[in-house]
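chain below, 130 aa
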Amino acid sequence: MITSSRICEIAEVPSTTLADWVAKGFVIPAVPGGVGRGNSHRFTVAQAVGVAVAAALTRSERRCSPEYVRRVVSAFGGVSEPWLVAEFRKRHTHFVAVHADKPLLRGSQEYESVNVAAIYDRVKASAAAV
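prediction:
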């Protein structure tokens, strides 16, 4: 599981942004946290990837609405880590859109698409560093 603070580092978003997304229901932690230090929300690897992809989309020229943040994070949260790895093996590494409630990945960077494989590698490296 990945903590809120780790996700903020990986996704390059302030903790207040992630807290706001959680409070508004755009992001639903796999394990909700409590009050106080050491009680942060915890997320699956796929959710962490989804948060980082959504954050990258909000920073891009394309931008995205808060509702799309929810759809992106939900789509990634709905797939397993083995599913992501299988997509990467097929060279489907870049996010295109949410399709049928799943992330649609393609093989090359088109239209400012986000490199999901690179984000996944950062998430895994961060989780291993714990």
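The chain has a mean pLDDT of 90. Helices lie at 4-11, 15-23, 45-59, 66-77, 81-89, 116-128.
thats it, cya
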